[in-house]
Give the backbone structure.
Amino acid sequence: MSVSSRQILSQQHCATHEDVHAVAKCTQCGALMCLDCHGFDEHGMAVCPSCRDKALQDTQSQAEEDAIRPVPLEDTDSERGLAARILETLRLVIINPLEFSVRLLASNSLLRPLIFAYLCIVFGGTLSRIWDVTLELEGYKIFMEAVEKTNETMPSPMELPDRFWTALYVMSVPFEAFFRILMGTAVLHAGSVVAGGKGSLRKSTQVYAYSAGAFVLAMLPMVGMTMAVVVQIFALFAGLQVVHKLTVGRAMAVCSLSFIMTILFVR
Ligand SMILES: [Zn+2]
Ligand SMILES: [Zn+2]
């Protein structure tokens, strides 16, 4: 969009909210829309609320006709084995959140995504902490060698990480994973309901649990955990727009809330 057309847009108002500036034009009907009215269809095109509802209804009925496959993990009709379906689910959540969100419409399981989320968080989280501990220990060794070389007594020698706390730090991941899933789902669902979401608690649980597949990325040293959180937010953002029919602005607000709660309460 050129500067001049953006200037023209900013002087125009949303078709639904007369006192709010428009940020975009519906690619279907051409209606002007504000951030709160701005949505995306399943192809990622900007659409107004009524065109989006229509697109979602079409997608929903397609899903009911079985034209859309559920999330691979639940796609038991497919010929592929469990391992292949898990990998395909991870690929979808991490690389293609838009397709993931559409396939959620055809998905219905609760236990499968919950077990999937639990295993991904325990796997990624444990490796992430093992990296933490290893790097800390390496740092300690390098420091002590430097101290021996200079032969000086340091004013405050670095302490060897305590074994008990180190073990507890790594081994508590499986317990924290329960808490993370429980709280993540609760915050997501409560936020979505407040934002006018129309989906059920089951759908919120599915969105959160599948998006937690991003936690396998936490196995990467140093940057892994940050990457996992960012990728999960993208999957949540795409998922909320479909299962709760939230607009971009509202989905963003709920994702930010979810992000802040994650940072505050679960490391
Ligand atoms: Zn429209
Ligand atoms: Zn509006």
Q: What stands out?
A: The first strand starts at residue 24 and ends at 25.
